[in-house]
Amino acid sequence: MTKKQSAEQEILKAAMATFVKKGRHGAKMQEIADAAGINKAMLHYYFRSKDKLYLKVFENVFVEGFGSLHVVFKKNDTFEKKLANFVDQYTTLIMQNPQFPMFILRELSEGAEDIKQVFDQILKNIQFNLPSVFIDSIQTAIKNGEIKKVDPRQIFITIIGSIAFFFIAEPLLMVFLVNDKNYKRSAFIEQRKKIVTDIILNGIKS
User: Fold this and answer.
1) Structural domains in the chain, sorted by start
2) DSSP code per residue over 52-97
3) What is the pLDDT of residue 106?
């Protein structure tokens, strides 16, 4: 990674944290520069405007974060194995990047139409294959008799939501659900991966 690429990554991390805290409309370029440890002039050198910086942050979420997840559905495995691998990788991704779901949730709260326009613009610039590859995998599994006829969109939304919600609401959930002093977060999350996979499979198996 070059010095410029490293600087850009630090800016993008600072920008995401600021956007999560203040929202796209509330965040100021000076705040982002301060969080990144650079002056505002340098921030504008790398990203000419807040809108361009925001688009790059959003793009990074899908390219760097979700961009490679579709690969698990292209492998020559059973659908059960593909699903288990996807749940595992998606959960791990959010564990390593906890701001991803919060960033998207914050932006949705500021206006669905605005975020739809942003997303449409990003999709024109990148190749985001996950939804289409997932749908193809579901349809193949139906033809092969592995699962019953289901709407792939409903399954996709259920998987994404089941995994993301835990991390979004974890502080509150822990107050209500965890009374065991021996609670181990990592073990609980590993257990959750299996539970989510089993629940989905039990609902759609032929």
Assistant:
1) 1-48 (1.10.10.60), 58-204 (1.10.357.10)
2) HHHHHHHHHIIIIIITTGGGGGTSSS-HHHHHHHHHHHHHHHHHH-
3) 76
